[in-house]
């Protein structure tokens, strides 16, 4: 079956020149963006009850823009003045650059990986004497916490935001040829909103191993798995499939 419409379970990038929009224009597709999950901030007063003291720490681990946004939100709400000695460890350079939205940093206070988790853990391994603060969501991977525990590093987990299902009830009677998923939470949201969902003729595109596992566990078929050797991005995987079926 030809592909005429795609639903991407993420916010619209807000850029008409984004790869997704370019793909839609090229193949004359209907393209919609709709986040299946949303982020809710945890109030500072809730963290005060848990006796969070940011200044007890010498370094912060930041794994996403949401983590950056909510860490600096809590800093402001708690009226904390961050010392110039505070170190920031980011999983990639993009997040390290994003931090500068909130503060001016010298390069010696900024450490970042190359995007791959094993390389980031190697980076942390050289700084095990730090006292780390790990701002995160209620849903997170165990990799970094397990690594810190295994290496007897002092660290504090602080859930500063929560990932919850978005209300998708208005999509009940809407059909798309392809739905694109990026996380297991997207799959959970789909079935929490639509417990009787059946895939039928809908093609599913899933990003990453954990998403693929969630798709399989939900008895769905991942028709467009990504990344792959021929398609390193989701857009490339979608285009490869569309060229084949259209």
Description:
The longest helix is centred in the first third of the chain and has 13 residues. The protein has 9 helices and 11 strands. β5, α4 and β6 form a beta-alpha-beta unit. The strands form 2 sheets. Strands 3-8-7-4-5-6 form a 6-stranded mixed beta sheet. It has a domain of 124 residues: 3-Layer(aba) Sandwich (Rossmann fold), CATH 3.40.50. It starts with a strand and ends with a helix. The relative contact order is 0.16. α7 packs parallel to α8. The radius of gyration is 20 Å and the shape is elongated. The protein is an alpha/beta fold and 246 residues long.
Summed up:
The chain is built from 9 helices and 11 strands. Helix 7 runs parallel beside helix 8.
Structural class: alpha/beta
How much helix, percentage-wise, in residues?
25-40%
CATH architecture descriptor text of the domain at 40-163: 3-Layer(aba) Sandwich
Biggest sheet features: 6 strands, mixed
CATH first level of the domain at 40-163: Alpha Beta
Tell me the β content: 15-25%
Q: What distance lies between the first and last C-alpha atoms, to the nearest angstrom?
A: 8 Å
Sketch the topology as an H/E string, one letter per element: EHEEHEHEHEHEHEEHEHEH
CATH fold call of the domain at 40-163: Rossmann fold
Largest sheet, spatial ordering of strands: 3-8-7-4-5-6
Summarize model confidence as the mean pLDDT.
94
Estimate the global geometry from the Cα principal axes. elongated
Radius of gyration: 20 Å
- Strand count: 11
Total of helices:
9
Low-confidence stretches: none
């Amino acid at each position: 079956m030809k592909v005429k419409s795609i639903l991407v379970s993420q916010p619209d990038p807000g850029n008409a020149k984004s790869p997704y929009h370019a793909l839609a224009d090229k193949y004359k597709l209907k393209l919609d963006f709709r986040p299946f999950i949303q982020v809710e901030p945890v109030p500072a007063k809730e963290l005060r009850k848990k006796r969070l003291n940011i200044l007890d720490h010498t370094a912060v681990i930041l794994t996403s823009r949401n983590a950056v946004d909510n860490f600096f939100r809590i800093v402001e709400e708690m009226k904390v003045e961050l010392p110039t000695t505070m170190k920031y460890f980011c999983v990639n350079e993009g997040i390290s650059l994003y931090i500068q939205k909130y503060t001016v940093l010298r390069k010696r206070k900024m450490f970042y990986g190359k995007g791959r988790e094993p390389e980031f853990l190697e980076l942390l391994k050289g700084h095990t004497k730090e006292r780390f603060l790990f701002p995160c969501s209620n849903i997170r991977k165990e990799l970094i916490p397990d690594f810190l525990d295994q290496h007897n590093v002092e660290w504090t987990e602080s859930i500063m935001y929560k990932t919850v299902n978005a209300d998708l009830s208005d999509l009940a009677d809407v059909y798309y040829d392809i739905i694109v998923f990026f996380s297991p939470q997207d799959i959970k949201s789909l079935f929490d909103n639509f417990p009787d969902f059946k895939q039928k003729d809908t093609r599913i595109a899933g990003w990453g191993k954990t998403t693929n596992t969630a798709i399989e566990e939900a008895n769905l078929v991942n028709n467009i798995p990504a990344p792959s050797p021929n398609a390193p991005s989701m857009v490339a995987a979608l285009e490869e499939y569309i060229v084949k079926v259209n």
